[in-house]
Amino acid sequence: MTLGTTKKQIEAFNVVEPDTLTTDSPGSHIHYIEEHLHKEANVYPTLTGGVTATSHTDAWTLGNYIEVVPASTISSVYDIHWINVEAMSDDVTFELVLYASTTEICRVRVTGADVANARLFPSIPVITPKVAADTQIQAKVASSGAGGDTITISLGYHTY
C-alpha cells in the first residue's frame, strides 16, 4: 500500500481473506504486524522466580527436559522474544534449547562471568516461530563444565 491509500482500498485488501492469524493472506500478515507492534510484552513465570535447568554431568551434553511454561497457560498465539537469565551456578558457557512441546524452537549460548561477584545477567534477545495457544514450553541445557551446572531463566513473550 502507498501513502494515500483509502479506507475502502484497505477494506478490500482485507476482504480477500479474513484478517486472522490462521491464514497466509496479506490481511493476516497485517494483523500479525499490528498485534506484534502494539501488544504489551509479558514474562513467564510472573511474580515469582524463574525456572532452573540443570546440565548433564558430561560437558556439552544436554540435560533433561524441564517445563518452563506449562500447557494451557498462555491462551493466545505467542512468540518468545527474550530469555531472561536470572542466575547461573558457575562461570561456564551454557547452551540453552527451548522446545514447543518437544519441537526445538530456539537455541542460544550465554557465558557466565564473575558469578561469585553477583554480576548482572543478560536478557538474551531471540525470535521464535509463532507458538500455538496453550502449548507447553520446555528447555534443556548443556554447559562447558562438568558436574550438572544450573541456569535459572524466565521468558519474555508477545501474544497475538
Which value, in Å, is the CA radius of gyration?
19 Å
Separation, N- and C-terminal Cα atoms: 23 Å
Largest sheet: 5 strands, antiparallel
Can you count the helices? 2
Number of strands: 9
Helix content: 10-25%
What is the mean predicted local confidence, pLDDT? 84
Known CATH architecture of the largest domain: Sandwich
The unreliable regions are 12-19
CATH topology of the largest domain: Jelly Rolls
Summarize the structure.
The chain is 14% helix and 38% strand. It is mainly β and 160 residues long. It folds into two domains: 7-36, no CATH class; 41-159, Jelly Rolls (Sandwich).
Brief descriptors of the model:
Jelly Rolls; 2 domains; 2 helices; four-stranded antiparallel beta sheet; mainly beta; five-stranded antiparallel beta sheet; 160 residues
General description of the model:
It is a single chain. By secondary structure, this protein is mainly beta. It folds into two domains: 7-36, no CATH class; 41-159, Sandwich (Jelly Rolls). Helix content is 14%, strand content 38%. The protein has helices at residues 7-15, 26-38, and strands at residues 41-44, 51-54, 66-69, 78-88, 93-100, 103-111, 123-125, 137-143, 150-159. The strands form two sheets. Strands 1, 2, 4, 7 and 9 form a five-stranded antiparallel beta sheet that branches. Strands 3-8-5-6 form a four-stranded antiparallel beta sheet, with no helix packed on it. Strand 5 and strand 6 form a beta hairpin.
